[in-house]
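Components:
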Amino acid sequence: MTSHVTRPDARFATSVSQVTIAALVMAIALYFLSSVISTSMIQEMLGLRRQIDARVPTFLIRICCLLVAIAAAFYAVTGLSMYKRNKLAWAPWLFLAVGLGFFIVYVIAPIFQSISYSFTRWNGLYDINGDWTGEWVGLQNYRVLFDDPNFYTSLKNNVLWLVLFMLAVPIGLFLALFLNQVVTGIRIYKSLFFFPFVISQVVVGLIFAWAYNPEFGLLSEIWSWFFCETKENIMGNLTRVCSVEPPSILGDEDSATYGIIAAGLWPQIAYCMILYLTGLNNVSSDQIEAGQLDGAKGWKMLWHVVLPQLKPATFIAIVVTVIGALRSFDMIATMTQGGPYGSSNVLAYYMYDQAVGEGVGRYGYGSAIATVLFLIMLVYISYFLLRMYQDEKEGS
Amino acid sequence: MSSRFTKLALGAAIGSLFSGGVLASDLVITFDDLNPDKKAAYEAAVEAFKAANPDINVTANNGDREAHKGTIRNALQNDAPDVITWYPGNRMGPFVDAGLFADISDLWASDPNLSTNFEAIKPTMSRDGKQWGVPYSYYQWGVYYRKDIYDKLGLTEPATWDELLSNCDALKEAGVTPFTIGTKFLWTAAGVFDYLNLRTNGYDVHNDLTAGKIKYTDDRIRNTFANWETMLDRCTFVSTHATMSWQDAISPFANGDAAMYVMGNFSVGQYKEAGLTDDQIDFFQFPEITPGLPRAEEAPADAFFIPANATNMENAKKFLAFVATPEVQGDWNKAIGQLPPNAAAEINTDDKFIVEGMETLSTAAGLAQFYDRDAPAAMAKAGMEGFQRFMLDPSTLDEVLEGLDKVQAEVYK
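Structure:
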């Protein structure tokens, strides 16, 4: 009786495993093929004159081999009887597999790689045989780092960015409240206020750098109305003579960072404003009316009735502002390159500067800076993850 | 589509079993200057090489100079051309040490032109007693000044430190800022430092400093900074230099608000573009500071190298030997307004800056490459930031020098 029932099952299993094995073999073979194919092979195959022309076809062929290999691997896995028995448990992981694979290769692995480089002295080069040219130095990079005034300057600037960038949230709220009214053409005003957020960070950086320029910038023009006069110089050309020199905002170690933060705030305020404007749309008019009946006005209304309803908008505004403050890299790169003499660096830019920038090539040291930055971010990230996790738990 | 590529790939795999290697007569060159005159001179040289070697398929690539500094790492390790441009001196050090540049000492020894006409620059191209590249151009540094302002105030080219300082006094009296400079990108400050150190302490001490053998807090280097402080005090630099690039700094010079500029000869074209004529500008060597010291000069060179991964080594050497010939060196540098490293090459005698530059360099007791090429990149970066800081606030000197000692101890291990 029992043998009679199991027999078709067993036959089924063998036929599946044959296909599965074939698919697996194909996947592995294609994977190896994709790594074996070289530009010189393709150049010869296609009869190309120069090796450099074979780069694109080679890349395409390699990618296609890899994709087919992945597809075959999928087919093989779905053919496994183990999979068939636990479809529900396996399916999500199967769908996630490609994404997870890339995430591990391009995000998780580099984190550990970079932490391991931080214990070495390395100029970023492999020798002719592809061998790594660095050497293990233990904690030396960290010892140097904690004795490096530039590191503390960068760290201080990171904190300044985080704190001052938060101004975008209340200013954005104020603007949103101001613009949340019904006037002819209000949409035009709203879009004008939103405009800075649409401009690329690099352009914002350039505009502000020009405005700050003590020779020809907007600020120095205004300055010269008060403190300067135009005179003829020795060669008979017109020149500006000032009783008090115009401030060199980006050229002074005390003001450079503030100058860049102000430039960064401009688009960030617009962003917060738009978040609050959408939030204000959803404020329930019943509660406002109820508040009015109870005699709430002005600040009291704002604080006790409107703001609590804007809580989700505030949360998002704070999150994007923190992220914005940590993404200050573009602004610094366009406006000062960390100067003068490193006084407007933040950790991210200092790391780039030491490892990759201008061929400095202190990859080990740069990795040590990256590791410290990572640890700092980890505190912030785990706080938010924890909070989101708790919210979800409460919600369910 | 993927199956077609798979077939192709399989075909390729099989094909490669039967034949190997690449076409014998290719040459891929990677150059790094898109400025119109530089680009044209490079292309002209490549055309001349093609005409002389019709059997070689030349691929001439060209790219942005700053971007090249980043991409060369990848190019040398993965995707090497046959010839590539880079800087000699310490800047080639990391690539030589990692074995990524091919040793071409045999070419230097066997080619009579290379072995006889490049005596002055040979040490710069050498590391570990071997030669690694062939220079195609270099240029002088010095002080470019407004001759018309000097004439108006009855001043003459200073030969000594005291003369320079008294010229500065006269210029300030007349309401002219003596020196212009733009230190936003740092390296311009290194030009001033190099000259002050070469004139205060001489070539050997300067070399020892950039080679990491002398500390920055050494008394001799402190003397250099003391002279620099005098210069900052009496020969003021334009006050907003930290926000200006070297090109921005030309505008006060062109307007007559500033009278002198410590710069390289590549800047002459820009002065003329700003409206100055040959009669208005002139050049003098940075004046003597310590009397009797042999005069050394800055002369950064640009050179061609062969990556160790190059596919067509023989063609690459042929190209390097070709670029070194007096004819090519002469034509190339006439076109870009610089000096040929080949002593037998002709120069453009109509250009007074080139004539004066040739004289300056050919009589120099030693040639420095420039601070950011003589010192390793990590040291140079910290050093130049220190120079900028010192220029903005001389009272930070001790802090700057002690900081540089720390970096030095770390970088030269």
